[in-house]
Amino acid sequence: MSEDFPAPHEPAQGGARAPLRRQVLTGADDVVPELARLLRAAPVQVLEEVDSTNDELVRRLADPTQRPVHGTAVLAEHQRAGRGRRDRSWTSPARSSVMLSALVRPERPGRPRTLEPDSLHWLTLLMALAGQRAIRATTGLPARIKWPNDLLLDGAKTAGILARVAPDPQGRLCVVVGIGINVDLDRDQLPVPTATSLRAELTRTDQARTGHRAEPVVDRTILAAHLIAGFRDLLERFEAVGGDPSRPLLASAVDQDSPMGQDSAGDPRPGPSLLEAIRPRLDTLGRRVRVQRDGQPDLRGTAEDLTADGALLVRREDGALEEVSVGDVVHLRPDAGSAEGRWA
Predict the structure, then answer these.
(1) What is the pLDDT of residue 258?
(2) Which contacts (CB < 8 Å, 24+ apart) does range 112-119 have?
(3) How far is Cα 251 from Cα 257, in angstroms, rounded to an integer?
């Protein structure tokens, strides 16, 4: 990292939130040289305000005069109408979060289809894995994935992911994958008690370690750069194996301790599959859960595994296994004041 920029979570200088630095995110400034190729691979645009980055990218996709290319990323400093699953609202003050949407075009001119329709649902977990790695790389915080579309820190939600399938004007299938990460928010600014932010977690961990309350700030630009590059890297390698989550990816896509991912001869070496990379990062596994499904009774049990189709295997309270492909999962935790437990 250049000496011109602070470490990702040094004490804040002043109260104003810094804007995202466009030159870094487009790869024009060589602040994070290891990410430069991926940042330059497709356009990155930062907007001051939109309704939601997903809606903005879908509009551009539908506009025949714009034609956004595969990998295009749109970020916003503020969203007026950010949304999550089941049309839940996602709001935060301006310049306090990383809000990003990326375009995936499985059908591109001059090449065969890279992903089949039955593998597109993996893009949500692909973004979750990229987000988990970006948070760890820039803050050291051990984010975990909650099936199917959240990131947690110490059991509290810090990020949400939403994918949307949309055709382009030629009828080709495309996917817009959006993520919002709570970054520079104190606990009293969070929308619900079960949410957290990178700033709040760094404050809590620093205070527990030193006994003093620090005022950390996360560099949103560096976080966003790692997120964009990480998603593009994972997507590139996932497409290379035809969207098969059971086939090994190259090590550099999932092993942040080995960024080059090469063997002694300099050749790319295989790493774990996407499925193998996600399983140990999936906080849902091994937990008692309640699954809420439209038109069906809630399912209670223990989450045991993730299938090759991306479904959650739940051991019901009667001992039977049930596969869950769609639903909202509530993590149940023992709580003396509640028969059901605290949920996240």
Answers:
(1) 41
(2) 114/239, 114/242, 114/243, 115/238, 115/239, 115/242, 115/243, 116/242, 116/243, 117/173, 119/242, 119/243, 119/244, 119/245
(3) 9
How do the domains of the chain map onto residue ranges? 22-249, 284-331
State the pTM of this model: 0.88
Side chain identity at residue 252, one-letter code: S
Give the model confidence (pLDDT) of 172-230 as tens digits. Answer: 999 999 999 999 988 877 878 889 999 999 998 877 777 777 778 799 999 999 999 99
Alpha-carbon distance 239 to 344, whole Å?
Answer: 32
Omega cis (within 30) before 148: yes
- Dihedral of the alpha carbons of 277, 40, 114, 144, in degrees to the nearest 10: 20
For residues 240 and 115, give the distance between their C-alpha atoms in angstroms, rounded to a whole number: 9
CB 57 within 8 A of CB 43: no
Sole residue written with tokens 């560099």: 219
d(CA 182, CA 197): 5
**pLDDT per residue over 298-311, tens digit each?**
999 999 999 999 99
Cα distance between residue 83 and residue 239, in whole Å: 28
Residue 287 is predicted with a pLDDT of 97
What's the fold here for domain 284-331? SH3 type barrels. (2.30.30)
User: Is 22-249 in CATH node 3.10.310.10?
Assistant: no
Structure tokens given for 165: 């399938």
Residues in the chain predicted with pLDDT less than 70, given as ranges, are 1-16, 82-90, 251-269, 334-344
Write down the pLDDT at residue 83: 60
pLDDT, position 254: 58
What tokens appear for 163 in the block? 């994918």
